[in-house]
Write a structure and sequence with these properties.
- The structure is a single chain.
- With about 200 residues, the protein is α/β, with parallel strands linked by helices.
- The chain folds into two domains: about 50 residues, Helicase, Ruva Protein, domain 3; about 100 residues, Dna Topoisomerase Vi A Subunit, Chain: A, domain 2.
- Helices cover about 40% and strands about 15% of the residues.
- The protein is built from seven helices and seven strands.
- The strands form two sheets. It has a four-stranded parallel sheet with strand order 5-4-6-7. Strands 1-2-3 form a three-stranded antiparallel sheet.
- Helix 1 packs across helix 2.
- The radius of gyration is 22 Å and the shape is globular.
- The protein starts with 7 loop residues before the first helix and ends in a 5-residue tail after the last helix.
């Protein structure tokens, strides 16, 4: 058994860092040691930035995107967005990904996840009721289901589509097209991807 180990303070730092997504024990150790070797000014800056983010940023009550307590929701407060179409996504980070394309000018609704029975996540755990309320109280002509294409994503999309139709809401329901990635060859695609690429083909 090793006679030497990290001081208790560093152990606590490592244990805290391990709770971050994508950070394992070895990675947490490297980050902790790196932080310890930085000057105190950086440590103070880091702690302040983290605290400010937690204290000043929350979820928008309307769309679920990031909201600044000082500057509001950049999505809902944008008067130039197309109010006739709404794109439903799983997480706020999905909004960032779509915005980077510059192709979508409509509004968003973040569910906060997807239906995953194995993880005990049902529709009641997501922002589904607020989505229905928004559709009922707005003039949306199209609802884009922009959730993932995995099993849970498909289940979520099907649930939302059935719910919207069942409520008698007169909107077009669409799904993001799925198929071959840009620059990808047919030999590297799986059967489901090729099927969806063929099924979603368009005229050129």
């Amino acid at each position: 058994m090793a006679r030497l180990n990290f001081p208790e303070e560093i152990k606590n730092l490592i244990d805290t860092l391990k709770k971050l997504p994508g950070i394992g024990p070895r990675g947490a150790e490297r980050i902790a040691v790196w932080l310890i070797n930085q000057d105190r000014e950086f440590a103070s800056l880091l702690s302040k930035v983290v605290e400010d983010s937690v204290q000043l940023i929350g979820a928008c009550e309307i769309c679920g995107f990031f909201k600044s307590h000082e500057k509001g929701c950049f999505s809902c407060d944008d008067s130039e967005r197309d109010g006739s179409v709404i794109c439903v996504v799983e997480q706020p980070t999905d909004v960032i990904a779509l915005e980077k394309t510059g192709a979508f000018k409509g509004t968003y609704h973040c569910l906060g996840g997807k239906i995953a029975p194995l993880d005990n996540i049902g529709p009641e755990d997501l922002r589904v009721s607020s989505l229905i309320s928004r559709i009922e109280g707005s003039d949306f002509g199209e609802v884009i289901l922009g959730v993932g294409s995995d099993v849970e994503g498909e289940a979520t999309a099907n649930y939302l589509a059935d719910l919207i139709v069942g409520k008698g809401l007169k909107v077009d329901i669409t799904r993001l097209a799925q198929g071959l990635p840009a620059g990808g060859g047919l030999e590297n695609a799986d059967e489901l991807t090729l099927y969806r690429a063929l099924d979603g083909r368009r005229k050129v």
